[in-house]
Amino acid sequence: MKNGIKHIFFDLDHTLWDFDKNSGLTFKKIFKQNKIDVELSEFLEVYEPINLKYWKLYREERVTKPNLRYGRLKEAFDAIGVNVSDEKINLLSVAYIEYLTTFNHLYDGTIEILEYLQYKYHLHIITNGFEEAQERKMRNSNIRTYFKTVTNSEMVGVKKPNPKIFNFALQQANASSGESIMIGDSIEADIEGAVSVGMRAILFNHRNSQTNKVEVIQHLNELKNHL
């Protein structure tokens, strides 16, 4: 163990579980099933930033779960000029959640790094994703057994970066902030949230975003240099 770290907390989506890839495959399937005639690449190009925007609103308690599920689809279809009825959008939103966890691509190096870390540290998850979906993602991609605890925002009633979810996760793991580290892809939700309760944090910067004064990795195997 380096620097007194005993507990590693991971984000799930966009950090271990390749959300964008799995999401794209899900849309391909449900569009075909529902006879939605759109160019998938054109749709995803507008949908992905809209989805991130809605998740930020969700973290900030400015939209509800149903608002997120409907709004991100409605806004994306409007952006590419495709008219889809509200009834169809609601059907698509349900189908999306149903099929999303049937695709389980992980980021390159996920299993290797979890295998490497599990014998040296206690591993945990902190996620803002929907509880029912997150459990299926982890089980279907065969990574659930690596984690001693899973803290979900729906369990706590608040979302990252709220300090309450980090403190809840630490308590559940029987860990102190000084012996814990957070690894995630969001500077706001993961890094700033963890630092606010005294945890160390590493940004998984797979998008090559501009960063400042943050420990950064661009491939999960780089964690071997830090831990």
UniProtKB/TrEMBL annotation:
Signal sequence annotation: none
Pfam families: HAD_2
InterPro entries linked to this entry: HAD-like_sf (IPR036412), HAD-SF_hydro_IA (IPR006439), HAD-SF_hydro_IA_YjjG/PynA (IPR011951), HAD_2 (IPR041492), HAD_sf (IPR023214), PGP-like_dom2 (IPR023198), Pyrimidine_5'-ntase_YjjG (IPR052550)
Protein name: YjjG family noncanonical pyrimidine nucleotidase
Annotated source species: Winogradskyella alexanderae
Lineage per the UniProt record: Bacteria, Pseudomonadati, Bacteroidota, Flavobacteriia, Flavobacteriales
